[in-house]
Design the sequence.
């Protein structure tokens, strides 16, 4: 069990290295220098494996680091459970997998809700899409608004305020329903004897 704890610790350290690498990429220029080079050599082979999946890109937003971290989190949870209990069942592994997928999905849903709320507040305050932050928020929110409006309103055209409020409510309701389902399903799976 000591070996499992050591591997779990190393997975945690690697996750932190990836997070640090991701944060360094948010700053333009050569902010990281040699450190960024070394971090890239250590983390990019793993991150690049996830970057090859096109569904992890939404516009200019790259969700592959979230998927990569979710997989490391999944491995770490399995290792931690194994180290703590000394055994693990298929039901517990399935429960952990569902919780890890939900963790990534809930982060994305929460992020989109926050972006849409910021866009709604900016709309009410009379801000357009001027400025770099509002352009980014607009670029993220526009495809979401379009897709949700197409689902809810079909071929009818809704005004912007109605569309964004309905989108926020729809994403919030989706979040709550999925959360309830995931908690119920993962609880049932964890209790399986196999």
Sequence:
């Amino acid at each position: 069990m000591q070996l499992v704890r050591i591997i779990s610790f190393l997975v945690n350290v690697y996750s932190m290295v990836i997070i640090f690498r991701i944060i360094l990429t948010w700053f333009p220029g050569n902010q990281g220098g040699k450190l960024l080079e070394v971090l890239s050599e250590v983390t990019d082979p793993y991150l690049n494996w996830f970057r090859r999946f096109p569904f992890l890109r939404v516009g200019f937003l790259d969700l592959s680091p979230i998927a990569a971290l979710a997989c490391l989190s999944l491995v770490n949870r399995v290792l931690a459970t194994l180290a703590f209990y000394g055994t693990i069942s298929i039901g517990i592994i399935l429960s952990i997998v569902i919780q890890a997928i939900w963790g990534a999905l809930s982060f994305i849903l929460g992020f989109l809700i926050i972006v849409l709320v910021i866009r709604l507040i900016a709309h009410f305050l009379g801000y357009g899409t001027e400025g770099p932050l509002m352009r980014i928020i607009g670029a993220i929110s526009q495809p979401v608004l379009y897709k949700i409006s197409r689902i809810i309103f079909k071929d009818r055209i809704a005004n912007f305020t109605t569309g964004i409020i309905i989108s926020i409510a729809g994403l919030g309701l989706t979040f709550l329903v999925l959360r309830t389902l995931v908690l119920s399903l993962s609880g049932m799976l964890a209790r399986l004897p196999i």
